[in-house]
C-alpha cells in the first residue's frame, strides 16, 4: 500500500506566517552552500555548474527545497506530498556523479522535480488527482514520463497539488482547489492560481522546486503558467506519454513541463518526449522529434525571420490600459528582433463556434467515462473501480470532498453518457471541422510559424486540435496579476516555438520571483 501523507504532514503555522512571508524571499536569497548562492531562481544550468564545481550536492539541494516547502506550503498549498525517499535518491545521484564520466549525465541528473498528482509513481507517494477517493490506491507501474525522468537521473521530490480531478469534477470548484490539499494560492496575489496544474506552477514560481511537470486537456498548463509568471510547454498530443496519467481524454490530454525558464522547460521536454509502448500515440508522434533533441533550438536570435500571426479578437483587455500597453510593447519587441508580424488576422466565427460550442464538453464527457473506468480497473488496489464508484464515494464522504459546496456535476454528466452515440460522433466531427477550417487554415494560408496571443485564452483552439503551445512570462495587469505571451503552432512545431519563445524571453526577461505582498 502507498504510504499516506496529507497536507497536515507539513508544520502548521499561525496567522503570523502571512506577515513573515514578505521576508522569506530575502531569507532564501541569503542561503550560502559552499559558494552556491541561493535556490532562489536557480536554473538547471546554475545547479549543474554548482555540481560540477563541487559547490553543491543533490542532497543539500533537496534539503533546501524541503525547507522552502516547509516555510511556504502551509499558505500556498502547491505541494500535496513530499517524497520520503527524495534524500535517498539525492545520495544516489551524488554517488553516480563521482564515478560516471563527465558529460555522460543528462541535464536533469540530480535535479529535484515535482509531479502533478495525476501522474502515477510506483513508490511511497500517492497518486490521487487530489481526491480522497484514491488515497492509498496502488498503481501498477510508473507513468511513462516518470520512467523517462528516472532514467535521466531526476529526483522525484513529491507530488504537486492540482485542481481536483484535473478540473473535471465540478464547474463550481475554484481553480487550484482539491479536497486533500485545500485551496492553492497564487504566490503573487494569494488569489486563484489557474488550473488545473496549479500546484506545479505555484511551486516553481515560489522556488519550492527546481522544475515541475503538469498535464493539459484544455488550458491546464498554459493557464497556471500564465497566472504564476512561469514558462509552460503544452506539447503536441502524443509527443509525451500519457500512460499512467489519470485521464480525461486521450484525444486531448498532454504532459508537459512547467519551469521558470524556457531552457529548463526544454531540458525537461527532451527527457520526457519519445516512444512509450504503453501509449501507442507516441509511436507515430515520435516522428516530430528532431534529431539531437530540442535544446539545440535555444537560440537567442530565434525570432528572426519568423512569421507570427496576430488575431486581434484575443487582444481585448477592456479598460486595462496597463496590460494593453505592455502587450503592444512586446509586439514591438518581436518586430525589432526580426519577426514578421502578420496583423489583423481573423478566425471565422471563433468565439461562436469554438468558445460557445458544446461540442468539446460533449466529447470530453463520453471520453472521460471511458478512460477513467479503464484507469481505475487497472489499479493494483483501489477504494474505487469505476466512475460509478467515484460518485458513490463522494456522496458517502460529502463533507470530506466538499460535495456540499462544489458538487460533482461533471462526474454525473459523464456517467450519464453511453459510449459514442450520434451526439458524440457529431461533436467530434464538428471539432475536426473547426480545427481544419479555423486554426489550420489560418496557419497554412498565411504561412505562419506561430500564432501569438496574450494569456492562455487560445487554449481551446490548441486543445481540440492537439496542437502545441509555449507560454512565457510577459508582465502584470492592472490588478498585479501575472500574464504570459503564448506562442501556438501546428503539430510538431515545437522546434520553431522554442526558438520563438526563447528569443522573446531573452529579449524581455520579465520573470521575477514573488514577494508575497498582497
Mean pLDDT score, rounded?
93
Proportion in β-strands: 5-15%
Distance between the termini: 41 Å
Task: Predict the CATH topology of one domain.
Answer: Amidase signature (AS) enzymes
Radius of gyration: 22 Å
Please identify the structural class as seen in this structure: alpha/beta
How would a crystallographer describe the biggest sheet? 11 strands, mixed
CATH superfamily of one domain: Amidase signature (AS) domain
What spatial order of strands do you see in the largest sheet? 1-3-2-6-8-7-12-13-11-9-10
Apparent shape: globular
CATH architectural designation of one domain:
Alpha-Beta Complex
Q: Fraction of residues in helices?
A: 25-40%
User: What's the β-strand tally?
Assistant: 13
- How many DSSP helices? 19
Low-confidence segments: 1-34
At the first level of CATH, the class of one domain is Alpha Beta
Which properties best describe this structure?
single chain; 518 residues; Amidase signature (AS) enzymes; 11-stranded mixed β-sheet; two-stranded antiparallel ribbon; 19 helices; 40% helix; disordered N terminus; Amidase_dom; AS_sf
Question: What can you tell me about this protein's structure?
Answer:
The protein has 518 residues and is an alpha/beta fold. It has a domain at 44-303 and 451-507: Alpha-Beta Complex (Amidase signature (AS) enzymes), CATH 3.90.1300.10. 40% of the residues lie in helices and 13% in strands. The strands form 2 sheets. It has an 11-stranded mixed β-sheet with strand order 1-3-2-6-8-7-12-13-11-9-10, sandwiched between helices. Strands 4-5 form a two-stranded antiparallel ribbon. β4 and β5 (182-183) form a beta hairpin. α1 (17-29) packs antiparallel against α3, α3 runs antiparallel to α4 (86-99) and α17 packs across α18. The relative contact order is 0.13. The model is unreliable at 1-34 (pLDDT under 50).
